[in-house]
Amino acid sequence: MAPPIAINETERLRVIAELDILQRGNDSQLDALVHTAALITGRPIALISIVEGRRQRFIANVGLEQTQQTRREVSFCAHAIFSDQPLDVNRPGFLGGSKA
């Protein structure tokens, strides 16, 4: 299921560009945050990502170090930006997950 495009997409992309976060390179504070998140949750993967126009870029990454980006249409985060609630990918029925 491809994620929709936000009504305010132009504004959202403008703010991302103004923040210049994608050009900064590695950020030790963000790296520490994803390492801590992985430890606390006991999960092998923790990411901080930015959803751009056609892709999702990982700006801090534990567990997928060989992957720096994905296409937007396969991005969980492109779905998550439409809600102020956490995205539960284990929810029954989410992207074809178990309905039990």
What's the helix and strand layout?
Blueprint: H1 9-19, H2 28-41, E1 46-51, E2 55-62, E3 69-71, H3 76-80
Q: Mind explaining what this structure looks like?
A:
This protein has three helices and three strands. The protein has a three-stranded antiparallel sheet, with helices on one face. The protein has helices at residues 9-19, 28-41, 76-80, and strands at 46-51, 55-62, 69-71. The protein is an alpha+beta fold.
Descriptors for this entry?
alpha+beta, three-stranded antiparallel sheet, 30% helix, globular
| Beta strand % | 15-25%
SSE arrangement, N to C: HHEEEH
Low-confidence region ranges: 96-100
What order do the strands of the largest sheet run in, or round the barrel if closed?
1-2-3
**What's the rounded overall pLDDT mean?**
83
Content-based structural category: alpha+beta
Shape: globular
A few lines on this structure:
The protein has helices at 9-19, 28-41, 76-80, and strands spanning 46-51, 55-62, 69-71. With 100 residues, the chain is of the alpha+beta class. It has a three-stranded antiparallel sheet, covered by helices on one side.
